[in-house]
């Protein structure tokens, strides 16, 4: 097994462990457990969702960062809804703290992409190409619009 595959496997294992830990902490009877680490509820949400988003981006590099971020935000909203039925308090502010953690993990990657575009343009090089998965989606859309034009 190549080194890169081993690294991704290790990250995926860590992601599973982290997901289980966060799931138990947010849905279990551990309300206020973050205070043992000197954190308040919102800080714990930011840190947990930053870690989840960051690990997810490393674990599944072929999926677009925006799709991953939106998925994690959806999971955060579902957790808040589930908490209503487990005797815990649900809060929009908790979900906003989740969103801050997701943004903190996602935005630097977009900044690096922008930086690469600027550097390529300054050197007179072509702008970096899209990922293969993005090109395939665009090609399928293009074929669909060609079929509509023929009809």
UniProtKB/TrEMBL annotation:
Residues 132-151 are annotated as: Disordered. It comes from the Bacteria. Keywords: Membrane, Transmembrane, Transmembrane helix. The keyword Coiled coil does not apply. It holds the Pfam family VanZ. The keyword Membrane applies. The chain crosses the membrane at residues 7-32, 44-61, 68-86, 92-111. Residues 45-107 form the VanZ-like domain. NCBIfam families: vanZ_1. This is VanZ family protein.
């Amino acid at each position: 097994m190549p080194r890169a595959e081993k690294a991704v496997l290790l990250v995926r294992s860590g992601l599973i462990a982290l997901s289980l830990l966060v799931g138990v902490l947010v849905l279990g009877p551990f309300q206020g457990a973050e205070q043992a680490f000197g954190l308040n509820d919102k800080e714990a949400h930011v840190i947990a969702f930053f870690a989840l988003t960051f690990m997810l981006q490393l674990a599944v590099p072929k999926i677009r960062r925006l799709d991953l971020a939106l998925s994690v935000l959806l999971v955060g909203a579902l957790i808040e809804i589930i908490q209503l039925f487990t005797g815990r308090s649900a809060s929009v502010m908790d979900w906003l703290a989740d969103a801050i953690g997701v943004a903190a993990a996602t935005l630097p990657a977009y900044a690096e992409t922008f930086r690469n575009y600027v550097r390529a343009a300054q050197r007179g090089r072509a702008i970096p190409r899209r990922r293969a998965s993005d090109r395939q989606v665009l090609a399928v859309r293009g074929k669909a619009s060609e079929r509509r034009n023929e009809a």
